Amino acid sequence: MKQEVDFVKCSPTQNMTVLVKSRHPVEDHLHIASKLMSYDSVHAEQVGFVEESVQYPNAAAYLRMAGGEFCGNACMALASLLAAERGASPLDTSHILLETSGTDQLIDCQVRWDEDGYHCRISMPVPEKIHLRNLQYGERNWEATELIYHDAIHLVMEVQQFSNAIREEAEALVRTVDVDDRFSLIGMMLYDAKSGEMAPLIYVPLLDSLIWERGCGSGTASMGAYLAWKHQRNITADIRQPGGTIHVAADYGQQGLSKLEIEGTVGIVAKGKAFIHA
Predict the structure, then answer these.
(1) What is the pLDDT of residues 6-56, one digit of tens each?
(2) Is 216 a catalytic residue?
(3) Choice among 10, 71, 75, 109 that is catalytic
(4) Active-site annotation holds for 75
């Protein structure tokens, strides 16, 4: 059996994202996503399915990620695509609300287009809890800061370098993190404070997908939350990643962290029809 899939491929900070515009049964999403992500198909790091929002009449669309997770970069990609379809011009800023998997919060997106691409600023979910956590793998003890979200856990670990040995240990460690079934994603953000560089590792258990992303919007938001929590103050920072830089702003006051926003650039690089064979 062959399925035809209408897709658009986007590049939010080189975190290659496929948005599926044709409608498919939810039970087929994992299979379709796995095929689309593979090297011999469209090839991407993540897949989201674009649907109509049924819960929020003011939302422009519902973005259902294949693993049920929340993804900031995919939200930026979809907001940019919707702005493009509305005929965005360099003088306009499109204001778009999105419903998405992985959070009950509507995502507020502002998109501006110019010759460099679509510049998108979006609100991000604030972590429910931030605390220190020690992780043991082999003979090595990792000290991490754990950020707990509605459907995900992010671990921030400061490192002196991004060596192959540290990356290999991080890959093994992230698979062993003991979490509740409600968490659809585990992220590990290696951070070099001196250079302001981050290496984001994203694990989606349902897809058995483990990827060192070239740019991670949700991980950037976690870095902003971590820095604001660590220094007990508002933070604005440019987080350098292999695919480019994403800006983060975090508000921190007497009640703790209250607001997170990220800003990055999205390119719409391809669209067409993919063929999925059972």
Answers:
(1) 999 999 999 999 999 999 999 999 999 999 999 999 999 999 999 999 889
(2) yes
(3) 71
(4) no
